[in-house]
Amino acid sequence: MTLRPVLAADVDRLYRAHTDIANRGAYFPLGVRSEPDFRREHAETGLWQRESGTLLIVNGAGELLGHIEFFRPVNYWDAFELSYLLYDGSFAGRGHVTEAVRLLVDYLFATKKQHRIQLVIVPENGASRRIAEKCGFTLEGTVRGAFFNDGRSQDVVLYSLLRTDTRPWRAGA
To answer: What is the pTM (predicted TM-score) of this model?
Structure first.
């Protein structure tokens, strides 16, 4: 499994995945960007900037499995937040997102100054909570009513990993 930037040849497939609300499941935000805005941002930035970026999750056969992104959650925090989505349920449960999180965490801590990486997860999303735990993120608590999705305000749980925390996948390194 690898992570790679979004190429011009990927934009059609990525936009179709972005607008496939039925595939997002119960926990991924339902908002959709307009196609011209989406294409314009790719043309101008490649969906990659200093403080935000999107990488595609690709398996060894070259199949596009999903994407992972990072962004500044609040401009005054020394942090990045990660978000991820698999484009087909048949890819779930195989460790692809866990590996993508590990790769992006290592990249961000090696190349960016931010001291903290966080995951914001709907409490009922057991798969994402397991990913956070396997990747060494610490549960900090519940943020009440912070996430408006699917017609209602929802609580979320906040997980974090600090630059100084042990990364389980690097423990033997």
So the answer is: 0.93
